[in-house]
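Comment thread on ticket #2218

A.B. wrote:
> Attaching the input chain for the structure job we discussed in standup.
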Amino acid sequence: LEHDFAMAWAGWLVVGKLFMALINTGMLPLGVVNVITMVPLMYLDYLAAQDTAHFSWMLWAWMALDVLVLYFSTFYRTNGPGSMYSKLATGIFGARLLSGITLFVLNKAPFIQPSVDFYSDPFVVAWAGWSLSSTAYILLVNNKKMSLECCNAVSTAVNLAVDYYALGHAKLFDTNLIYAFMATDGIVAVLGVLGMNDKFPSSLNWFVGRVQKDHLP
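C.D. wrote:
> Ran it. Output below, let me know if you need it in another format.
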């Protein structure tokens, strides 16, 4: 990548994928995963803040908020649904997501320099879309209102939309790689949908047992 603007979005995307991979292993609690991902996220925010041609001073505010998530995830790491670290992470990543949505809707946002024409570069738009999908994922997982399977399905559904957008700009992307992305995203989305309703297997077992009982001599 030669474009500093695209590199920033790509970096944030990689951190989001790291979060997704760690949380889906089930080996680490959410607070620990937050701590691990906040460190590289702060560094990436710092690098992006140096790109004053594209990003505004608000990137420094993002860094400060990331420090808060890191602090609370480290020292207030309880697992209840109302945990302080998860509430804080939900609010902060919600603000980041809202800023990103604003950029997509209005072609401008407070964290972007006013002179930047976001939609003029489809390469950046695609990376930003994938990055925002990861931001939404971190928000949903920390919010603890959805199952992990549902969070996976929602995030990968957005990824599939961005993958399709990238296919429309074949001169900028390796289409074979994009097709591979779509395949993996589709698999994760399907697995997420199948795992969302944990009542289905028990209902099916009840139905099969009922049928067998009705047909016993």
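A.B. wrote:
> Thanks. Noting for the ticket: The helical segments are 4-25, 30-50, 58-75, 84-106, 122-143, 148-167, 175-196, 199-214.
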